[in-house]
Hints:
Belongs to the universal ribosomal protein uL29 family. By secondary structure, the chain is mostly helical. The chain has one domain (3-66): Helix Hairpins (Orthogonal Bundle). The protein has helices at residues 3-7, 11-33, 41-66. α2 runs antiparallel to α3 (41-66). The chain starts with a helix and ends with a helix.
Amino acid sequence: xxxxxxxxKTPDQLRDQLTALKKEAFNLRFRQATNQLxxxxxxxxxxxxxxxxxxxxxxxxxxxAAN
Length: 67
């Protein structure tokens, strides 16, 4: 997922996606702790996706405050 795709979504959709990614990150951490995680790169990808969503949400909030 890239920032361009995220900017096309509504803030509610982004918050829902953020919640889902945070749940996935929790599950990945749990699986890593129990040595059941196969794809360790997914943890970094999820963390970066969370950061992208938060960045886009902050941009939207700043733009709304400026108008």
